[in-house]
Design brief:
alpha/beta; Rossmann fold; 5-stranded mixed barrel; 43 helices; disordered N terminus; Sterile alpha motif domain-containing protein 9-like
């Protein structure tokens, strides 16, 4: 081998390490029990997948002793560990308690569902054996499924989906010969990515006209979590923690005796095994770190590299450095594989802390990592506590050393990891992000004087990366309060990425935070000049946030990134600051007069003549200069509040910050109500009633639908219904009261869902009559979506108003067009919310709200899991409530039956794939969204 060229040597080395030197034929199983040869060309083309063949490892020639030693020291489990454990005389690998649940309960249950692609979650703390458990499940089922693991760096989900479907269909002449794919997703960053991948797989199957009455792809989402707390548990979620059960501890004790017999001389360094054997005892891990690092000297090259690995493995899940990079950094000449020479040996007495792993990427390569995440964290803490090295010092080394970023192998991964530890922020409870990444926050806390140098070095390393300039801008305006420097960094970021709404938002945030800082500091004098200075900043911030909104609407929608609503929230926050500015700058008489001016009670030409401002030419001049922003303040705030009502009520939340945004909106709305909703308890006129409704966020149909899920008191909802009744009874004019009549219908339906026995609920027939009256007049675009939604939902089950029932198809089309115009630009990566399902009962009972159905099933997290996997429709509580609609599939269209034999309505299926497997008469469940009715659980009759 020494005489071969280096590439040939590396190829031979990989072959030996992978144990495939004698495995010339690899096979996949088919549904009919036959095997099909997996050609090397096909496997190479499926480069996003690491395929587990039915004859994996057979014919290989690896050293069992070395494989076990590598694993017990902390190396990642390989298929060889499972293969050797099944040899005669060997004992199997330890199965965690959840193994049987996953293999014998969860997966069989998923296989019984009528959904193309299903998933379940295996959440685990770092280093507790979650990945090993997932691979154990795959190994045991390789004779039942076509198993594969998604490789690192497979970020294009459309490509992944295409390859998964290719693996599904490969070698199967007929669809009946297909064997379902069991795909392990190892360490997706977000749960939403699993949902996105499922949608891509379903679309790919639809393109291939693949259909089935059972799942064809099962996704095992093996994901690390930072904490066991606040993790939603569903029946499709398994949680693995760092606390072994009594049976598991007994298994480890028995395994220890076996390991001691075979590997007696190396047992002391089997830290990976011993960490679990000691039940993750912190004292054990800290003791190892303290003892091993006694002679650590940061001046040594191998110590520098070790510290970098500690840092990466502490702050970035699954981080590593390629062996080639490590050899170059340490000055070791790269050698072909020759048995005993290992890069770990260059670490001397610290070699027991590192282990090699094989990275399955487009081109496979070897890499180094710390043996266990907890060991990396304890070692880093030991270095900081003993003052041997600071986190800022290690980070600067990582950023400034060119060798880390020039090595080809693992280069992309390292760039991503370094970017992540600097930029990615953790989520607090309640959905709010921390201000900076954990590493940056720790450096600010431990070495406050060093963080600016670290961030400057980050910008120097990532010279063309807008996010790094954004990070530096955020540091300047959040920590240093250096707004000029922050502004400069933000504009540099925008120059690099002018079409990125998040970068644009940072430019606006700089101005907003400066305005907030000046308000809190209160050094600007209460004079016309001071008011002018405040309003100038507010005007600039408002313009900047509006620019962010425009960029967000035009952003590339090819990926699955949800719409960025930060520009809308920012505009509201600045508007509230304007109200605070006016309150702080003006005396009480002037402020009260200003409130009347803002809410339209006083016109501009009258405002300047009123007493508080009569003799203040300076203030009058400022008000005239900013009259546009002041006069339109109420309208613009209301417009943004209405936007968020539609955004959150009609579209599924794909952002974990929804709770935080809604909390901030509630704070801002209280300011709005104080200034613009002058509610009189003594007057009972139209204006007072409308202002009451506006103050309760009940003056729009979206606001009313929101009451279904925000736990409004029933007596408050009754008052809202009565207010609408009063307005309808006493209103006059040419508008025919369209808005109030539509909202009155919504209010009654919502009240029924909250308190069905309420005496304030009008008879269902009277609602249909009111609806019919509204439908006799042409609907404006402004009222189209809400009117036609409620018309379809209200008239569908009854079909007792023939004149309008026969127009339901038209109403569906109009509603869909209105949805696209109103929400089309912001609905990317979101699904329309199903507000109601068609129920079995008559009248109000024909509309079953999503919230009432959720209560009958369980938690919101559980219903989400049940919904995604199609299990929801099999729940007895759901089956008792919902009505099955009959219809037929005709030319890939689903036509719903009505009471008239010659009248059908086209309904969109939630999963289009379900149509390709159906011919003729079908039945389904019906859900009503603002985009149109959707069919669920389509079944042949």
């Amino acid at each position: 081998m020494d005489e071969q060229s280096l590439p040939e040597g590396e190829t031979e080395e990989m072959s030996i390490r992978e144990g495939q030197s004698n495995q010339s034929h690899r096979f996949l199983l088919c549904g009919n029990g036959e095997k099909v040869l997996l050609s090397k060309k096909v496997e190479a083309n499926l480069d996003a997948l690491s395929i587990l063949c039915v004859n994996e490892c057979e014919g290989g020639n690896l050293n069992k002793h070395e494989i076990e030693e590598h694993f017990y020291k902390g190396g990642k489990v390989s298929w060889w560990n499972f293969y050797f454990s099944e040899e005669p005389g060997s004992t199997s690998l330890i199965k965690r308690d959840k193994y049987d649940v996953i293999r014998n309960v969860i997966i069989p249950n998923l296989c019984n569902l009528n959904v193309a692609c299903v998933s379940f979650n295996l959440f685990h703390l770092p280093g507790c054996g979650g990945t090993t458990l997932a691979m154990h499940v795959l190994w045991s089922l390789k004779d039942t499924f076509r198993c594969a693991v998604l490789k690192e760096g497979s970020s294009d989900l459309a490509v992944v989906a295409s390859q998964v479907v290719q693996l599904l269909t490969y070698g199967a002449v007929e669809q009946s010969a297909q064997l379902p794919v069991l795909l392990m997703l190892d360490d997706f960053e977000e749960k939403d990515s699993v949902f996105d991948l499922k949608q891509h797989i379903v679309k790919e199957m639809e393109k291939k006209n693949l259909s089935s009455q059972c799942p064809q792809v099962i996704l095992l989402n093996c994901m690390r979590i930072e904490s066991m707390e606040n993790t939603d548990l569903t029946e499709d979620t398994v949680l693995i923690g760092n606390n072994l059960s009594a049976p598991e501890q007994k298994c480890f004790q028995e395994k220890l005796r076996e390991v001691d017999e075979v590997h007696k001389q190396d047992l002391e360094t089997f830290y990976g095994f011993m960490v679990m054997k000691k039940n993750f005892l912190p004292e054990y891990i800290q003791g190892v770190a303290r003892n091993v690092l006694k002679s650590f000297d940061f001046e040594d090259k191998h110590a520098e590299l070790l510290a970098v690995l500690f840092l990466l493995n502490t702050y970035c899940k699954g981080a590593y450095l390629s062996v080639s990079l490590c050899e170059e950094f340490l000055g070791i000449k790269t050698k072909p594989y020759c048995g005993s020479n290992k890069v770990e040996d260059a670490f001397g007495k610290f070699s027991t802390l590192v282990t090699q792993c094989r990275v399955k990427d487009n081109v496979d390569y070897d890499a180094l990592k710390i043996i266990h995440p907890s060991m990396a964290e304890s070692c880093l803490q030991e270095l900081v506590a003993s003052k041997k090295a600071a986190k800022a010092e290690i980070t600067n080394l990582l950023l400034m050393e060119n060798k880390f970023f020039t090595c080809v192998q693992g280069k992309t991964k390292l760039w991503e990891d370094v970017h992540s530890i600097l930029v990615k922020r953790d989520m607090k409870c309640g959905g709010e992000n921390n201000r900076f990444s954990p590493l940056v926050q720790d450096i600010i806390k431990e070495s406050p004087g060093a963080i600016e140098i670290v961030l400057f070095n980050a910008v120097e390393r990532f010279t063309d990366n807008a996010v790094m300039f954004q990070l530096l801008a955020r540091y300047h305006y959040l920590v240093k309060k250096n707004f000029r420097q922050a502004e400069q960094c933000a504009w540099q970021a925008q120059e690099l990425s002018p079409k990125n709404s998040y970068i644009s938002d940072t430019c606006a945030q700089v101005i907003k935070h400066e305005l907030k800082f000046e308000l809190k500091r209160d050094l600007i004098p209460d004079t016309p000049g001071g008011l002018d200075e405040y309003l100038r900043m507010a005007h600039s911030a408002t313009d900047a946030f509006r620019e962010t909104q425009e960029i967000a609407k035009k952003e590339d929608k090819r990926d699955n990134t949800p719409y960025n609503s930060a520009g809308h929230l920012g505009e509201i926050q600045v508007a509230v600051m304007i109200l605070e500015i006016l309150q702080s700058q003006l005396n009480s008489d002037q402020y009260n007069t200003m409130k009347c001016f803002l809410n339209g009670s006083i016109k501009t030409h009258d405002f300047l003549k009123i007493h508080p401002f009569k003799h203040s030419a300076g203030y009058c001049s400022v008000v005239q200069q900013y009259s546009n922003i002041l006069c339109n303040l109420q309208h613009n705030m209301k417009r943004q509040f209405d936007f968020f009502n539609s955004f959150f009520v009609h579209l599924t939340a794909r952002t974990s910050s929804k709770e935080q945004i809604q909390s901030e909106l509630a704070r801002c709305f209280s300011f709005y109500v104080d200034v613009f909703c002058n509610i009189s308890t003594q007057l009972n006129d139209l204006s007072s009633n409308w202002q009451f409704l506006e103050s309760k966020n009940a003056d729009t149909y979206s606001g009313l639908l929101n009451f279904l899920s925000n736990n409004i008191e029933s007596n408050e909802m009754e008052e809202i219904v009565e207010k609408y009744a009063f307005i309808i009874e006493n209103s006059t004019g040419g508008s025919n009261g369209v808005k109030e009549r539509i909202n009155f219908i919504y209010a009654n339906i919502v009240l029924y869902c909250i308190k069905p026995e309420s005496r304030s609920i009008r008879p269902f027939e009277s609602l249909q009559k009111t609806l019919s009256e509204v439908l006799t007049h042409p609907a404006t675009f402004k009222d189209s979506m809400e009117l036609h939604f409620i018309a379809v939902a209200l008239l569908w089950p009854q079909l007792s108003v023939p004149k309008f029932s026969e127009r339901l198809g038209t109403y569906v089309s109009q509603m869909s067009r209105s949805f696209q115009k109103e929400l089309g630009a912001v609905c990317h990566a979101k699904w329309p919310v199903v507000h109601f399902y068609l129920g079995k009962e008559k009248g109000y009972g024909s509309l079953v709200s999503q919230e009432n159905m959720s209560k009958s099933v369980g938690s919101e997290a559980n219903i989400s899991s049940l919904f995604q996997n199609g299990k929801l429709w099999n729940e007895e509580a759901v089956r008792q409530q919902l009505c099955r609609v009959t219809g037929r599939v005709e030319k890939d269209a689903l036509l719903a039956d009505t009471s008239k034999a010659d009248f059908n309505i086209e309904v969109k299926p939630f999963y289009k794939r379900q149509l390709s497997s159906q011919v003729g008469k079908v039945s389904f469940l019906l859900g009503f969204t603002m985009k149109g009715p959707l069919a669920f659980d389509i079944q042949l009759k």
